[in-house]
Amino acid sequence: MARQKTFFTCQQCGFQSPKWLGKCPDCQQWNTLAEESSVSTATKGRSLAAPGRPQRLTEVDVREEDRLKCGISELDRTLGGGVVSGSLVLVGGDPGIGKSTLLLQAVDQLARRGKALYVTAEESARQVKLRGERLGISAEELYLLAETSLEQIIQRVKELQPDFLVIDSIQTIFTSNLESAPGSVSQVRECAGRLMLLAKGDGLPTFLVGHVTKDGAIAGPRMLEHMVDTVLYFEGDPGHPYRILRAVKNRFGSTNEIGVFEMKEEGLTEVSNPSELFLAERPEKSAGSAVVPTLEGSRPILVELQALVSTSTFGTPQRTAIGIEHKRIALLVAILEKKVEFSIAGQDIFLNVAGGVRLDEPAVDLGAIAALASSHLNRSIEAQTVIFGEVGLTGEVRAVSRPELRVREAARLGFNRCVLPKGNLKNLEPPQGMQLIGVRHASEALEAIFD
Q1: What b/e sequence results for 260-270 when a residue is b if at least 16 CB atoms lie within 10 Å of its CB, and e otherwise?
Q2: Residue 389: which residues within 8 A CB-CB, separation 6 or more?
Q3: Do both 204 and 318 map to the same domain?
Q4: Which of 304, 289, 309, 290 minimizes the C-alpha distance to 349?
Q5: Ramachandran bin of 333, using left for φ above 0, alpha for ψ from -120 to 50, beta for the remaining angles
Q6: Which of 243, 271, 299 is the C-terminal boundary of a domain?
Q7: d(Cα 405, Cα 422) in Å, to the nearest integer?
Q8: Do 99 and 242 lie in a common domain?
Q9: Does residue 52 lie in a domain region?
């Protein structure tokens, strides 16, 4: 018998080495290399479909993929319009944030259109049943399978012939072809590859639940995200009832699309109008509060930025940001200090995005500057004013994408004044009752806001 080859794999990034190393040379993490046997060749030689032939690009069929609605409009929006036959969807998020709850609610709706198999590898069927009773799950064609062996799961799928499949979770599934422990890089990679072949070959829509690391990334090899068709991340602050489902990869729709949910006792409920929800408790005539229209995918959302600038009691001023990148705030404070001549660099600065939302786009720069200036001057911003625009290092206000969507959403919610980049005023028709104020510099914007 040939000697079985072993190697050492980093459990954080998937780096492989023929010998053990104390520190991974790829991700620089200590004590993450574990010994594993050679990867099974079970998937070699298998094809996703019948062999094809080369064809001209003009001959390729471009018919739209048939989509099945999940019955949860926010999930359908995030998926790009619904579930595509043969698609492989990875759902990640922190423990307890609602991944299993959402998929159980979704598969309950899908099971009314065909058979659905929910494979629970972390909980018993009884535990899932108790959660289902709390959520009101009642579909007759929803089947449960408490199993961790990949071979047994595939056999049961072949016997039942379901129309939808959920694996909860991919890190607890193992194949007997490998000797490494469940959750290891080689096990996750091999199991995901076998499930991908199953989904593509049989046209079976499959959902995978994935654990996340302490940094918030999907646990296991990075290749796992490349193998699936769609990657959805569940975001949310444990202190808030709101959850955001964000698409960071989607081969069948746009990326960065989001769905907003609220966690209640009966499960996750959809939030069809998130702007009203995030602004429901906004304090009026309070210094340090500014409303910013941000764009998440194709959806405009109005959120409140809250800033607090206070005298520092320590030698080094504090800089705390929640929901927005910390380094971005340091940059905006430097712009206020140098280009607008506000003496705030030596003060403690706190910035928070109300509602537990995370903002990544640069269009919130001008709103953050306005909130910081409002707190520093102790002057409130007019309640019916929204502010957006990107701010450069010289203090200039740059144009942002899709200004018409932002302005239209603000007008729909009753705002009548908008401070925006002057470059966005071109070919922009203001809605009825909306005053548009174009600015070129941050100092000009603050003059218009506090005039």
Answers
A1: bbbbeeebbee
A2: 363, 365, 366, 397, 398, 399, 400, 419, 420, 421, 424, 439, 445
A3: no
A4: 309
A5: alpha
A6: 271
A7: 16
A8: yes
A9: no
Token pair recorded at residue 330: 């340091």
Band (314; pLDDT cuts 50, 70, 90)? confident
Residues 226 and 322 in one domain: no
Neighbouring C-alpha atoms within 13 Å toward the C-beta of 63: 5
First to last CA, the chain: 85
Question: What are the b/e assignments for 94-111, b being 16+ CB within 10 Å?
Answer: beebbbbbbbbbbbbbbb
Give the model's confidence band at 218: pLDDT under 50 very low, under 70 low, under 90 confident, else very high.
low
Q: Give the C-alpha separation, 207 to 41, whole Å.
A: 24
Q: Write the DSSP symbol of residue 96.
A: T
Q: Which long-range contacts (CB under 8 A, 24 or more apart) does 155-162 make?
A: 156/117, 157/117, 157/198, 157/204, 160/115, 160/117, 161/115, 162/114, 162/115, 162/116, 162/117, 162/204
Of 291, 289, 287, 288, the residue nearest 416 (C-alpha): 291
Of 409, 71, 103, 80, which is closest to residue 256 (Cα–Cα)? 80
How far apart are the C-alpha atoms of 54 and 29, rounded to whole Å? 45
Q: Return d(Cα 171, Cα 95) in angstroms, integer.
A: 13
Q: Within 13 Å, how many C-alpha atoms sit on residue 23's CB side? A: 2
Which amino acid is residue 106, in one-letter code?
Answer: A
24 and 32 Cβ atoms separated by less than 8 Å = yes
Residue 89 lies in a domain: yes
Q: What angle do CA 60, 66, 71 make, to 5 degrees?
A: 155
Residue 23: which domain range? Answer: 6-37
The answer, yes or no, to whether residue 356 has pLDDT greater than 80, is no
Read off the pLDDT of residues 230-264 as tens digits, 9 standing for 90 and up. Answer: 999 988 776 678 888 989 899 988 877 888 898 88
Residue 63's pLDDT is 61
Of 299, 233, 308, the closest CA to residue 271 belongs to 299
Q: Among residues 233, 156, 223, which one has the least CA distance to residue 192?
A: 223
